[in-house]
Each structure stands twice: as structure tokens, then as C-alpha cells.
Amino acid sequence: MLSLTNVQVNYGAAPALWDVSLSINEQELVSVIGPNGAGKTTLINAIMRLNDLKAGQMHWMGEDVSGLSAHLLCEKGIALVPESRRLFTNMTVLENLELGSMHPKARSERSRTMEQVFELFPVVKQKLAQKAGELSGGQQQMVAIGRAMMALPRLLLLDEPSLGLAPAIVSDMFKAIQSIHQAGTAVLLVEQNVSRALSISSKTYVLENGRVVAQGPSAEIASRSEIKKAYLGL
Q1: Which domain holds residue 210?
Q2: At 46, which CATH number?
Q3: pLDDT at position 48, please?
Q4: Can you spell out the DSSP letters for 126-186?
Q5: Residue 167 included in any domain
Q6: Cα(56)–Cα(59) distance, rounded to whole angstroms?
Q7: Which strands, in side-by-side order, build the sheet including 55-60?
């Protein structure tokens, strides 16, 4: 479905990602873990073409999309929920959701997709007329995920969806991610809540200093002593 081959991303002259390769299959849930500054957000932004590739290639459904812009990738079926949500806080919840469905196919399905978002996050339906900036952090994250789902993605990119949320809300958020995955959408999850990420994903990549230092089935990654010590506090 999606594959990155020997991707390098620079910030100025400084490399932020080195020779990163990964793959995501149809309807797969893949997690990316690593310490702060490892390059996780850089990676997910590079996939969405918010960061330019210095080297390497990205293929989507067999097509080289290394040079495509973000809006064209969205039309092809990739959607991003960015770190810190990035909602338009002075716009209503409804307006934010509608912005997610601007390409023609998504616009034609807008009513049906909106109902799916309400089913996933019932509280969002009650807040449609409210400005997004007036919502709680958890509610804003629900809107951010809902906005991405309005684009009808085949692959959903999630960058730190649990960041700054209360523990009870974190549980709800991961249940929602599992529901989205079980409904048929592939998910790439970048997450610092390592135990949660490992528990719901089938495959995991570990990033350190801009490089993939480990990869494999999530259960296998979770069983490694160095992962337990570094990320799980065991």
C-alpha cells in the first residue's frame, strides 16, 4: 500500500531522517515509537509531503508519489491528524469537519461520512455550532480525527493523538483508533504512549536519532529487554 525506501529528510544542512524504509499494507495498523527528537513527526510529515525528501522514494499503491503535494496525496487516500490537532479555532466544529471533505469524491459523500464521524464521536454532533477553540483538548482531538476521516482516507496518519489528554480520554481515543482500523482504514500511529501503541498495532518501527533501529511484529518488539527498559519502565 505505502512504502518508503531509503528516505532522507534534512532541516537545512542537518539530516533529520537517515535511510528510513518502512511499509504499510492494506488495513494494517502500524506504530512508530521512539524518544523525543527521534524524527517521528518528521517522518509522518515527510509521508504527507509537508517535509521535502532529500533522498529516497515513496510509493503509494505501486505509484511513485515522492514529488506529489499534500493535497494530491489526500485525494489519493492519505489523511493526516497532526500533532497538537491544528484546528481552525475561530471556525465552528461543523466548518472544521467540512474542510476535511473538500476534494470532489469526499464532498459527494459528505453527509454519509459526517454520520460516521458522529457515530464514532457522539459528543461532536452536540458541538457542531461551537467554535473549535472552545472545546476541551479531548473534544478537539475528536474533531481533528473526524476532519481527517471526512477525506475518506484509505490510510490515516496519526501524530501523537494522546498527547496532553487525561487518562480516561486516552482510553477512549485508542478505542476510536481501533474502531477506525477495524472498519477497514489502514493506520500509521506515531505515539509516545508506547504500551498503548504496541498493544493495538500489528507491526512497529522504532526510531532513534532519525534511523530505524528495530522493526517487527509489535508483540515481538514489546518482548525485547531493551524496549522494556527504555520505553516501558520494566
Answers
A1: 1-77+153-160+190-234
A2: 3.40.50.300
A3: 95
A4: HTTTSBGGGS-HHHHHHHHHHHHHTT--SEEEEESTTTT--HHHHHHHHHHHHHHHHTT-E
A5: no
A6: 10
A7: 14-24, 2-11, 55-60, 63-64
C-alpha cell at 86: 491544528
Residue with the three cell numbers 475561530: 90
Max CA pair span of the chain: 50
The 10s digit of each residue's pLDDT in 90-128 is 999 999 999 999 999 999 999 999 999 999 999 999 999
**218 or 164, greater pLDDT:** 218
In a domain, 136, yes or no: no
Q: How many CA atoms lie within 13 A of 141 on its CB side?
A: 22
Whether 46 maps to a domain, the answer reads yes
Task: Convert the pLDDT of each residue in 9-23 to its tens digit.
Answer: 999 889 999 999 999
Q: For 15, which DSSP code? A: E
Inside any domain, residue 17: yes
d(Cα 93, Cα 139) in Å, to the nearest integer?
10
Distance (Å, whole) CA 25 – CA 105: 23
Contact 205, 215 (CB under 8 A): yes
- Rounded CA gap, 215 and 49, in Å? 23
Average predicted confidence (pLDDT) for the chain: 94
Q: What is the DSSP string of 63-85?
A: EE-TT--HHHHHHHTEEEE-TT-
| Domain count of the fold of the chain | 1
From the list 58, 49, 42, the residue with the least C-alpha distance to 4 is 58
Whole-angstrom distance, CA of residue 176 vs CA of residue 145: 9
